[in-house]
Write a structure and sequence with these properties.
The protein has 69 residues and is mainly α. The protein has a single domain, classed as lambda repressor-like DNA-binding domains (434 Repressor (Amino-terminal Domain), Orthogonal Bundle), CATH 1.10.260. It is 61% helix and 0% strand. It has five helices and no strands. Helix 2 crosses helix 3. It is globular and about 30 Å long. The protein starts with a helix and ends in a 6-residue tail after the last helix.
């Protein structure tokens, strides 16, 4: 199974018109961290997966590409 978080994260961020910098600020992170998540060079830990789900109003299953909705 392919790791889908980078694509899903970028899709959600762009749908909301956010730059990686703005999303990083919302999560109290450095811009490089969001860039590394989206490029697949780094994976967010469970705490940040939960924060992303809350921020975007989605499930972890969606964010990880396990379900389409």
């Amino acid at each position: 199974m392919k790791y889908m978080l980078p694509e899903k994260l970028k899709e959600l961020r762009e749908e909301r018109g956010l730059s990686t910098t703005k999303l990083a600020r919302e999560l109290n992170l450095g811009n490089y961290t969001v860039n590394r998540w989206e490029s697949g060079l780094q994976k967010p830990n469970a705490e940040y997966i939960a924060k992303l789900c809350i921020f975007f109003g989605c499930t972890a299953d969606f964010l990880l590409g396990l379900k389409d909705e």
